[in-house]
Batch of 4 targets.
Target 1
Amino acid sequence: MSIPVKKINFFHSIIFFLLVSSFALIMNQFENLKISPIICFFFILSIGISHGALDHQKGKKLTKIYNLENSYFFYLIYLMLVLIVILIWFFFPTISLLLFLIVASYHFGKEDIDFLFYKKNGSNIILYFLKGMLIIVTPLLFHFIETINIFKLLLVENENFYLFLEFTESNYILLLVFLMSLLVNIYYLTNNFKFTNFLIFFDFFSIVVLNYFLTPLFAFTMYFCFLHSFRHSISLMVELDENSFKNGSLLFIKKAMPLTVLTAVFYILSLYFLSNYYQLNDAILKVIFIGLASLTFPHILLEYLLEKNEK
């Protein structure tokens, strides 16, 4: 008997919403309570990056599809892409940030909705993007200055970029994008309606509550680790064993551990190096977001190639 993935994700969304609401209430009552970026760093290193820690397994599938005898070729290309993204970021930070925000929006929108529908359609690209834009636009709506300061820490010094963001804020463009994302969520709720579709709005309100009450970094960490990554990990556990969630979970931990630990080591070494030149909290922000960008691009490319060949 196969595992009811939608049911698991539905209850996960409810629990996440209740957790977020409770945490927001606590933070609102104790205004002086601050969450250290070190805590965010720890969660992203453990739970966050682990959802991509089976990319080496998927890479083996891809090498077979393309009739490549040596799987080390995949590792080489993957690592090169990671390094290229980091290098490009240091030379062209504004363009890199914009591309990262666009690609991340599409990725978040797609990953957070695809598991609900069996029928996939290439025309959904815009809808995926608008749904995922909620992750980008809500911190700008509720914590504009703080979000801008994070962008500046990511080496983005282009004044025209910030003038554009100020224009979007003062002319309600951010609010318009937020409303468009809301409409996309309503569309997915009503499209081939099933009771489990309500998790779309549990997720929507969770993201809004997170970004309204919490700092941009901690709100992103909560979403990335405990909603996006956790849900993706659930799908991987089910793929590993469709009949036993417990066994699939154990297999996932076993298979994901090596790459998770290796990636965490590189993150920590990068943090140690940057902490010699920047304050610790600033160095953490650089490592988190530039590091995630360097992993996101090859991860998404791998997912795309596998999905394309499976079709």
Target 2
Amino acid sequence: MIVGFAAGGGTDTAARLLAQDLAAELGQPIVIDNRAGAGGMIGAAAGAKAPADGYTLFFGSGSELTVLPALKKVVSYDPLKSFRPVTQVGTVSFMLVAHPSVPANTVGELVTLARAKPGQVSFASYGVGSTNHLIGELFAIKTQTKLLHVPYKGSAAAATDLIAGEVQMAFDTVSVMRPHVQAGRLKALGVLSARRTAQAPDLPTMAEAGVPDLVVEGWLGVMAPAGTPDAIVQRLEKAIGNVLVTPRIAEALMQRGVKVTSEGPEAFRAFIERDLDKWRNVAQRAHIEIE
């Protein structure tokens, strides 16, 4: 099972949790193969080129399968043509947070502030073309505001400057931001999932906060190389589904910020198509393109 990120990260941890019980379900060992680099694209390219025999899978995320393909001029794989979606594994909620000094305690107050100071309210991301960069641009589009994007080289660097007040707000995963909010270093204004998240049930969704049609979730899923026979895909989907419904795995993933969804091949493919269209539209409207 190829993972496009380094060992110990969120995607890798979720893959290893799944692989442990999936090996027992399938009756054979599963080796996690970390191919980190280029935002997950090196691993995705390796997964796309693997033999279509069901013995090599790609455990991917929205970053390398929809976000980057929507932005980059050249990608060595096609998210849909190069793979056969097997099943979505889970979704990850994002949270809008701000430094305590920002004079806004609700999403509505933040929008009012941004409209009064166009181009002056700054948001951090972990790089140009990253998921939370595009979330910030989508937020600006939906709220008809102009924000100042400040890119960093990774989530940790962005969080450090946000906590220090060097930048005013950010969109990051609930699991990453919640400890800082609980410690009083940041304040949370809302979540971007379709429904309130169990990790922060008191926070409103964007729709509840007055920004309709703004739903963004990260996601994880298992892909097989294109050409993998139907029978193999069906067997893998059933086996993964059996693992994901076990309370122990569902709880372990939830503790890491992943809500189990377990969508099958056709529903997963349709989801990927919608996600690609969404980010292509955001990239076009925000004039974002990367080499």
Target 3
Amino acid sequence: MTSVDPADERRHDPDDSELWNESYYLDWFADDGSMGGYVRIGFVPNIGQVWYWACFVEADGPLVTVIDHEVPAPVDPRSLGLRHDGLWADHTVAEPLERMSCDLEAFAVSLDDPAEVYRGGWGDRIPFGFELDWHTDRAAYQWPPLTTPRYEIPCRVEGHVLVGDRRIEVDGWGQRDHSWGAARDWWGNQWCWTAGRLEDGTRWHTAGAFQEGLDLGVSYVLEPGSTQFVEANDVAVRSEHDAEGLATRVHLTFGTLDLEITPIAWSPVLLTHPDGRQARFPRAMGSVRAADGRTGLCWFEFNQPPS
């Protein structure tokens, strides 16, 4: 396993492929699974777009979400700061591979039914913001060299979130990742990604379900107190979905772990190709039970290209 180069925390120069992509993901959840959220900054420079997603979810509350696919690119090609109508966001790698900070001031939409995102996402407009820090939990994981350049970092997350007139303190766990290079074809490729933490401090990450019937993927398990990622390339994903394509249960087997995931709160996104094709991207905070009885929490996602 190769180590992550701290210089790769920066943005990278694109090639000329239409769907060349660079993205930063940052998610978090409270210790008790009562609330969570995530941020994604997605640069798609060859179609002239920056995609920005940010959300706040609660176990028994509405989805609060910002989804903007027309954010102007920063003038400085090294910058992660974004400015648009109703959106001010700064993202700073304060200490490479150790800490990343995110600040947001925006107007979000509050939705009682998260699947309404697929039908225009009309809901109540609400002030939304946060100041959050992702602190590395022990180590950073470099994906295998034969795949798209990418690394994953399990984190401790702290700060606060503002929703309407509420100020919500955050002291929880999460994950951040950064990928770039090859085109990301949301409309032709499927996948399932997960990252989470068990109650004893075990961390894990998987990416799989790339093809029906093939249990190939990328995964790690980081045991409590260890800085050594135990890798595996067999990732079995078995899932059931409702009429909207939202998973009702997910069963994961990889490495030393056998996990059952149940969604707590959804934050999906609808992705429209320049030619009009649409892919659904349901992402959720979930509760986890391992086969040995341990419990935990995670974020997970399915990319669902048009059939």
Target 4
Amino acid sequence: MRDYALILNAGSSSLKFCVFERPEAEDWHLESRGQIEGIGTAARISARSGGGGLLIDKMLGAEVRDQRDALDALAAWLRSMYGGARVLGVGHRVVHGGARFAGPTIVTPQVMTELHCLTSLAPLHQPYNLAAIEAVTKRLPDVPQVACFDTSFHRTQSPLAQMVPLPRDICRAGVQRYGFHGLSYEYIANVMPRVAPDIAPGRVIVAHLGSGASLCAMRNGKSVDSSLGFTALDGLCMGTRPGAVDPGVILYLFQGLGLSVKEVETILYKRSGLLGISGISNDMRDLLRSNSQDARLAVDYFVYRAAKEIGAMAATLGGIDGLVFTAGIGENSAEVRRRICESCKWLGVEMDAEANARNLSRISLAGSRVSAWVIPTNEELMIARHTGLLLGLIAAHA
């Protein structure tokens, strides 16, 4: 009998999944990767094998209304692909672990109660992450589940870096800088000694640039600072989120414009960022193709904010040895990387234009004082490793 781990990353209208086979050696083997998109409207399931071959691309229809329906559809497909196989564990990406969860944890009813209390801190992600866990519990009650948090990697930051300068009684209630995209940063930190050994023990800024975007300042592979703070709204401009905003603007939305809490939440999480500036799209690819002046302005602001925050991260590190790009935009947009690197020339980044255009791993010149890299992230493998270790399914990964 073949043994597998199932990895889930649930969003409001999508369910991303990976199937990993239990390894004979020390690490998991990817069997398939896919997603169910359009949950609640026109759902479609698609998946490819670990080698990239198409396994399924099929419309599911409007009957897939929520995460439970999506999980039922996924379960049906998994049975058709891996009938007779055994699911040893299910690992989940959970965006917010709060101050309590400094590492992956096995899911229990008490853990779920605590995680539900954090929903208001990540309303765009947390409810759907937890809904997927609850759906698996009903379908596979005897299969252990592991929650892996995007906040855990940043618990190595100093108390100063985690501080929010509000009254102490408020901060004691859990108001602090948490940082996010930790599973992505953890993976980059793990592979840097192999991919970029010269900078791995040094001062590195990793730019996770996608629909959600942030920076992490690392020293010797540990998080020192992050552009995301108490929630996933801070720092860089993102697809539909504004990044750092003067708190007075938020007060004005309530007091000056008379907007409700729900209206302000919708503006901050779903109508701002690249979409808000351009009025066209939250997708960087659409904006780069567009001739619209507003689209160009959105790209300009995205680059401006990234370069500005990189300077701030360099200050917290006392200098920089390497700059790493990852995630959807960071891995695929040579144009955005070029513009950010040009804005960072003052730090010592000298880009190799040809290497950047070819999406090579190292995109800086050999003599560049600060090297620049493109390293694809793999949050799902990170979750699989944590799940395997916590459930005793695999040995520690070297």
